[in-house]
Design a protein that fits this description.
This protein is 56% helix and 11% strand. The protein is α+β, with helices and mostly antiparallel strands. Helix 6 packs antiparallel against helix 8, helix 8 packs antiparallel against helix 9 and helix 9 packs across helix 15.
């Protein structure tokens, strides 16, 4: 059976030793009282909920899946999901980083993200129910009317109701400019919304009394394309003036998708028939309002893959230490046993260290980014907010695409460690592989994220955001370049930084002649930049590990070994990626008829 131990020690290392987040929070009045003890207490208790409440129902939830009653259009979540969610609400977890004005606890998003990493390790399918609700909360908090906030935010904050985002339609996925759902204005200021949405995660379930859907639709006079999209809040049950639930709204689940993974989450086909909704934000400006939720979701999906990488790694390590198979090539390592544990074999260690390096690198990057998000939203200095916003904008597509790609690699490696047992359901590993695959697809495919990074975030502002990242890396290289023991980390980091600068200019020049050059280079380019950011994080972590390697705590020895592995075995991938990136559009120019 699978197991999960919350990585609280490594989280504490990243939060307190690497980034000293408590000091960062002291500069933000809203978080000035958030200290190390408070953060650690949340990590400890959150880890218990993840490992003791939702982890035990992950495997069974995957096997059972969700059930749709086609007569009532109601969906039942797997056994134990509803009871676990009740405990989640009773523990106050949904309110952790929400606004105290609506019943929230007002803690930083940084702390909430650590909780969600553990929840995703424990049970990604279950975690998507409260995770999407938090995104709906953020969108309404940023763009809702006072009446909408009063009606919906307290219930979303408490977790009494959940939320969804309804974008995709049967004929269009990422290209939302093609959507057809219509919204007809009514005399009372509401709208009647008609259309169909697909792939709606947590779109229907029996865990709460009401579900709040955020729906993209077109007004009758809307311009064509993405500039004619509006956003509406459409509750499953109408809400009366006193806050009680009224009649059933015209939004129903017509079917559940039969999926490769995340079986415990209801991926719904929703039909809207004159469903009553109210406008969120300005007419025809729906995408701007929805982007609050979409960007939160992109960071959340990266966090999902971090969670899966961590739990897959833990289980593969446990198996590799226990499984006996052959002898080490250099001679028996366990002569008292009929064979050696497979962890002695070099390639098994390589697979395990790959997963570990990607998990710990992702944790550092995700934490750094969400600290910047807390600054962007709450720091009193406008200049600091602007700098932080640029960092979040640049790093969001990297978190979404690079971390999810790495999770696909890592979970596959971890399944390989198990051999044939990895392919069998009851060992749990094949579920992590299946669950990890969707993270590369939804909330904007990883190709879309790559186009966003290169086309919009870098070339779109003439490299302004990228130059800030380069300056930060260069400053670290300058500061640590005099240290002999840091050379093995600083030198490859500096080298890659220079190569990325040159590559960016080269691709930018090509794109001026043919914009399709961006599409040809973008995926490889994002992976190169992802490694640059990871290398920076790993160099910083290695610095701390070097300083404390003689402390007697084996944690730092393991951190240093993992850092060396990353620089020796994973970072060199950038050499081939830079070559394929430079190859550009020419190798792809085959006539359609020849495909």
């Amino acid at each position: 059976m699978p197991q999960y131990n919350p990585p609280v020690r490594d989280m504490q290392f990243v939060l307190h030793e690497l980034f000293d987040v408590a000091s960062e929070f002291k500069q933000i009045p809203a978080f000035a009282e958030v200290d190390v003890d408070t953060i650690n207490a949340v990590l400890e208790e959150g880890g218990k909920f993840a490992s003791q409440v939702i982890f035990p129902i992950n495997l069974s939830g995957d096997a059972e899946g969700c059930t749709l009653d086609k007569t009532t259009h109601e969906v039942s979540a797997p056994k134990g999901f509803k009871e676990a969610y009740k405990q989640y609400v009773e523990g106050g977890w949904p309110a952790l980083s929400c606004d105290p004005a609506y019943g929230g606890q007002g803690l930083p998003h940084t702390v909430n993200q650590c909780l969600y990493e553990m929840l995703n390790s424990g049970n990604q399918a279950w975690t998507m129910y409260p995770g999407l609700s938090h995104g709906a909360y953020e969108a309404l908090h940023a763009h809702g009317t006072d009446e909408q906030k009063k009606t919906y935010l307290p219930k979303l904050t408490s977790g009494e109701w959940t939320g969804t985002m309804c974008l995709t339609e049967p004929h269009c996925g990422t290209d939302l400019g093609l959507l057809r759902t219509k919204a007809e204005p009514q005399a009372d200021g509401s709208y009647k919304i008609t259309g169909a949405k697909i792939f709606i995660s947590a779109g229907e379930h029996d865990m709460v009394d009401n579900i709040i859907h955020l729906v993209l639709a077109r007004l009758p006079d809307a311009p064509v394309g993405s500039k004619g999209i509006s956003l509406f809040v459409v509750p499953k049950f109408m809400v009366n003036a006193d806050g009680s639930l009224g009649e059933r709204n015209g939004i129903y689940c017509a079917g559940l998708e039969h999926k490769m993974g995340i079986h415990g989450n209801a991926t719904a086909q929703l039909v809207l028939e004159n469903a009553v909704g109210t406008l969120v934000g300005q007419p025809n400006k729906g995408l701007q309002a929805m982007f609050v939720m979409m960007n939160a979701a992109r960071l959340g999906v990266g966090n999902q893959s971090l969670g899966l990488t961590e739990v897959a790694y833990q289980n593969a390590v446990a198996y590799a230490k226990d499984r006996l198979q052959m002898r080490a090539l250099s001679g028996p390592k366990a002569p008292d046993k009929p064979a050696d544990p497979i962890i002695v074999h070099p390639d098994v260690r390589k697979m395990l260290l790959t997963a570990r390096a990607y998990a710990e690198g992702a944790r550092a990057l995700a934490t750094y980014t969400v600290v910047q998000l807390d600054k962007e939203l709450h720091h009193p200095d406008e200049a600091v907010r602007a700098e932080a916003a640029d960092a979040v904008a640049l790093l969001t597509p990297i978190i979404k695409a690079f971390i999810t790609d790495n999770a696909w690699i890592a979970t596959s490696h971890c399944m390989q460690v198990y051999g044939g047992h990895g392919f069998i359901h009851e060992w749990g590993m094949e579920q992590y592989v299946r669950d990890a695959r969707i993270n590369m697809i939804y909330e904007g495919t990883n190709t879309v994220q790559s186009l966003d990074l290169l086309g919009r975030k870098i070339l779109g502002d003439n490299g302004k955001k990228m130059k800030k990242l380069g300056k930060m890396v260069a400053q670290f290289v300058e500061d640590e370049g005099i240290s002999e023991e840091m050379q093995e980390f600083v030198n490859p980091l500096a080298d890659l930084g220079e190569k990325v600068t040159k590559l960016t200019m080269e691709v930018g020049m090509k794109a001026m002649g043919n914009a399709d050059e961006v599409g040809a280079a973008a995926v490889d380019y994002l992976r190169v930049v992802g490694h640059l950011v990871f290398a920076y994080m790993w160099a910083r972590m290695a610095k701390i590990a070097l300083e404390k390697q003689n402390s007697g705590d084996p944690f730092y020895k393991a951190k240093l070994i993992t850092a060396r592995f990353y620089f020796a075995k994973l970072l060199p991938e950038t050499a081939s990626l830079i070559r394929t990136c430079r190859a550009g559009l020419a190798p792809l120019e085959m006539d359609e008829a020849l495909f």
